């Protein structure tokens, strides 16, 4: 019963990824996952349920609900005998303040777990405390799964009252009606946000004055997305200042994120542009006041001729939350960015003190990211030079390898000089194995005699990861038959922990 697959493969509904701080609780949680005995499984559940840790108790409630949900497949809930204790813990969680939320769990996760099990028979429609506790959650106008669970619990109470011949609680009835209407209106506003037209934009602006705060925040979030942000920043700032501390939603977070600073840069943290004018442009780039100002700030930095400023501009062009953060089409500046990157790669590596976070060569790292994205065959020489640079910082070598990989995949005809230059990092034992295998991966599938020769050399290498990638490379080039005897000899010596792909190839060749 306890070891049914429905429970052993389960982690929780609302606390996935949440690390329990207490080692004993972590062990209890681990006992809920295979391999385990039925006794350890039960003890682990009870340890979580009876702890003082909110997340641990929430996980236990989620397991109870999972057991109840799947009981029809196995005959009964594995935790059925602890039902009264489960309901008591759920009531305790429901009366606690809502979980604040973090990177792993959403707001009110404790209430979501509690309501999920309480609606399975743990609510008493004649108990004023139960009715008031559920009403208090609904009154906060929760969103997502917490909102769904709150509505289910509230409807359960109202239905039970009707079945017992009692008048449905008027406060709870009104709150359910309000939350249902709010959810429908929020969905309408979300759909409007997908419409780029001026009429939709005007409707969103009007919705920022809606009587329901969640509707106002959803409308604001739609105005904060894409190019609408530029025209409505002042309105968004006023709205954000007006929201009370208890008015919390994902939409509110989206607005705050839009109004907050974007990324500083990729490689220049700890440094600021060289002049007051460039520092002002950087501030505008991170938190733009308008579309024209945003583009102007980017070009000011890009064409400044100053290493930190130019590097930051290149980073913003490449970063997914950089120049395109509010929907700008960066294709308009692609030629400028690539020209600047080529110019930077013709200069010496920047000094370490210019980029304290990453050290020397940050300018080349920034430039190589642009070549990775935009480089053409005319950039083959500069890529090969970057790959062969004596004493290049590890970061620069890494960026060069990844740029070469992207370019070889993009170019119609592989450049033999770039292929030859990749041989250096592939067989450089001083580099991390990850970047060495990335360099080797870049050769896969290429129609290139030199690439085939490098993969063959790799297949004969002493280091297993390089050897495996070399064999995979030869198979990707359809060269197995040409080297079958060698490859059979190589793969026969591979250990069973060489990796799934390696074992698949070994099975094919032996």
Automatic annotation (TrEMBL):
Point to the regions of Basic and acidic residues compositional bias.
Answer: 252-267
* Organism from which the protein derives: Streptomyces lasiicapitis
Superkingdom is: Bacteria
What lineage, starting at the top, does this entry show?
A: Bacteria, Bacillati, Actinomycetota, Actinomycetes, Kitasatosporales
Which residue ranges are recorded for the region named Disordered?
A: 244-274
| Protein name per UniProt | HEAT repeat domain-containing protein
